[in-house]
Amino acid sequence: MRYVTLTDIYHHSITQKYVRRSGMAHAISVAHHAFDLAVKQEVNPDWAAKAGFLHDIGHYEWYSDGEWDYNLYREYDIHPIKGAERAHKLLVRLGEDKYAAKEIAHAILFHTDSALPQGEFQFSPLQKIVHLADEMDKQPGNLHHYRNIDNREELALIQQLDQKVEHYFSSISTKHQG
Ligand SMILES: [Fe+2]
Ligand SMILES: [Fe+2]
């Protein structure tokens, strides 16, 4: 059973403020990629879609003279840490299952190496999926953060993904009953 839908998350003012900051179109596209990868790898696609959607919710605005300054960003960024915490708080506030909120927050924390010390790490399948889904949507010159789509199209894509997640779980339960 899903306690929180992607549509609930999309409509929340925290999402509108912080996910929009780093690109709503990018977030939605990463959510779709993460869902597809999760279905193929038999990882929970609801968690993958949510982590994909919220993976960049921790971005700060690295502006100098009105332009995004990537040197400042590289020097000082902690967006995976901030994002993990922010997404966790949002999900729990919306009524998400606490274990799901933790797994999603961890996948956000490990989606990029900017918050990690150097070394070898063992990532969970969900964490690998969110990282890969993000890589799949990246564009040269970080254009993926600036891509825009119409608000109605955003909502339609989010609702479509909710339907896919629900269809996945209903087909799984039919399989187990049959
Ligand atoms: Fe990121
Ligand atoms: Fe990203």
From TrEMBL:
Matching InterPro entries: HD/PDEase_dom (IPR003607), HD_domain (IPR006674)
Pfam families attached to this UniProt entry: HD
Domain named HD: residues: 23-139
Superkingdom of the organism of origin: Bacteria
Name of the protein in its database record: Phosphohydrolase YueE
Gene name per UniProt: yueE
